[in-house]
Amino acid sequence: MSDAAALRLKEVKENIRKAEKDAERPNGSVTLIAVSKTFEASVIKPVLEAGQRVFGENRVQEAMGKWPGLREEFEGVELHLIGPLQSNKAKEAIQTFDVIHTVDRDKIAKALKVEMDKQGKTPKLFIQVNTGEEDQKAGIPPKEADAFIAKCRDEYGLEIEGLMCIPPVDEAPGMHFALLEKIAKRNGLEKLSMGMSSDYPIAVQHGATHVRVGSAVFGARDYSQ
């Protein structure tokens, strides 16, 4: 497991560097988020030992269960919440994560602001945009993104770092990445969280600053457990 994970991690990092070069972007301008959701600490450890320090989790409770011990053992871990957030988990999310990618409605923005003030912590925040306007998917519709970004800044006093999207599985991702890039530019946002195992090189071409790669690093997930 250790050797396989380290080799996959190395390959993904090399692919990112190549995509940066092809896009005439500076080396190191893209951050790899190794998506460790559903994987136990024993599977994550070899990736940490190979030098990776930025990880993504989908669920607050799952992250709380496995990351405290890993953080004690490995310094410099940066944990990103990349799954939908419920407002009643805002307290735990602020306690656990360094970056939250899924701010997508007023209730979440308000709850995060309250907890940030209470805890004196300021995780970096991304707004999730539902670029495909899919009913089953979280995220603010593109046509409402500008107003929501302004509201987060002006009404809730939140500092928004960037935008995140998950394109529809049956559509070319490039058009969705381009849309997210366009919304970010007109709102003065420099960070773009987009691209997963199947399409992260394309995301780099469209200006991604963070790519969320899971199975290409950890191997296939077993969702039956």
Provide keyphrases for this structure.
single chain, alpha/beta, 225 residues, 45% helix, 8-stranded parallel beta sheet
Description of the structure:
- With 225 residues, the chain is an alpha/beta fold.
- The chain has an 8-stranded parallel sheet.
- Helix 4 crosses helix 5.
- It is globular.
Helical content class: 40-55%
- The residue ranges in which pLDDT falls below 50 over 5 or more consecutive positions are none
Number of helices: 9
Q: Report the major sheet.
A: 8 strands, parallel
In summary, what is this structure?
By secondary structure, the protein is α/β, with parallel strands linked by helices. It is 45% helix and 16% strand.
Task: Describe the SSE topology.
Layout: H1 2-22, E1 31-35, H2 41-49, E2 54-57, H3 60-73, E3 78-81, H4 90-96, E4 99-103, H5 106-119, E5 124-128, H6 142-154, E6 160-164, H7 173-186, E7 191-193, H8 200-205, E8 210-213, H9 215-218
Parallel strand pairs: 1-2, 1-8, 2-3, 3-4, 4-5, 5-6, 6-7
Helix pairs in contact: 1-2, 4-5
